[in-house]
Specification:
By secondary structure, the chain is α/β, with parallel strands linked by helices. It is built from 7 helices and 8 strands. Strands 4-5-3-2-6-7 form a 6-stranded parallel β-sheet. Helix 2 runs parallel beside helix 3.
């Protein structure tokens, strides 16, 4: 199977699910499943950068996940800290900018500090934007946006009639980013789990049974190839759409 270099999704978002079940399958603790999941993150970040994806957004921790047993939350924080320490050099080398969405104030202080450092030191990189969704919940994000909007109306910075889709989007934490073209969810679950509810309006959804720790470059290419077979109509008819003649584009082999 090949992917077409001329029809790449500009923005891929991934719900990285299944670490716990992977651990269960291997008769080890959940935390070791998360550890293995962190390795899959490294692989996918590198692969996306290699393929030429501009934006990669990874759902690493939901607001709701913070309600998991204390030991698990603590382990997730340590893993995140470890990831940042180990990968910062690599991100720099690869020209990857790190961003976050979510309430990073709810993370532990060391992790927050490391994140801020990593975000600042990669701020000028532009080969790929890696956005980690941490302590993220889309409903909270939307409510926060509404609050800011109301404040700006109250202070006469904007008028109610000025509000439109683009303006509302600019109040979300994803401001400046294109909406995801492709959403991948691993582990055979068919739900969005409070991820990017506004931004996914016209995103192509791809679900795979592969558990996140097993997700490899090959699985990513499979998802991209599947995406490339879809016709994105955005509510119009096929006839209305200008046919993208990208079949002549360069293609690369799956490993
Ligand atoms: C995803 O794996 C990682 C996080 C949510 C932090 P899970 O931990 O949800 O794995 P399952 O769903 O229990 O298999
Ligand atoms: C979604 O996975 C959140 C992340 C992958 C970070 P969950 O495992 O928390 O989702 P549910 O509980 O199955 O919906
Ligand atoms: Mg899960």
């Amino acid at each position: 199977m090949k992917i077409n270099r001329d029809n790449l999704p500009q923005h891929i978002a991934i719900i990285m699910d299944g670490n716990g079940r992977w651990a269960k399958q291997h008769a080890i603790g959940r935390i070791r499943g998360h550890k293995k999941g962190a390795q899959a993150v490294r692989t996918v970040v590198r692969s996306c950068r290699e393929i030429g994806i501009k934006h990669l957004t990874l759902y690493a921790l939901s607001t709701e996940n913070l309600g998991r047993p204390k030991e698990e939350v603590k382990a997730l924080m340590s893993l995140l800290e470890e990831y940042l320490s180990n990968e910062l050099m690599e991100l720099q080398k690869q020209g990857i900018r790190l961003k976050t969405i979510g309430e990073i104030d709810h993370l532990n202080a060391t992790v927050k500090e490391k994140l801020l450092q990593a975000k600042t030191s990669t701020a000028n990189n532009d080969r790929m934007i890696l956005t980690l969704a941490l302590s993220y919940g889309s409903r909270d994000e939307i409510i926060l946006a509404v609050k800011k909007l109301m404040q700006d109306i109250k202070q006469d910075k904007i008028k109610i009639n000025d509000i439109n889709k683009d303006m509302f989007g600019s109040y979300l934490q994803t401001t400046g980013m294109p909406d995801p073209d492709l959403l991948i969810r691993t582990s055979g679950e068919y739900r969005i789990s409070n991820f990017l509810l506004w931004q996914l309006a016209y995103t192509e959804l791809y679900f795979t049974d592969v558990l996140w720790p097993d997700f490899k470059k090959d699985d990513l290419l499979k998802a991209i190839a599947n995406y490339q077979q879809r016709e994105r109509r955005f509510g119009l008819t096929s006839e209305q759409l200008e046919k993208d003649n990208n079949n002549n584009g360069r293609s690369i082999d799956r490993e």
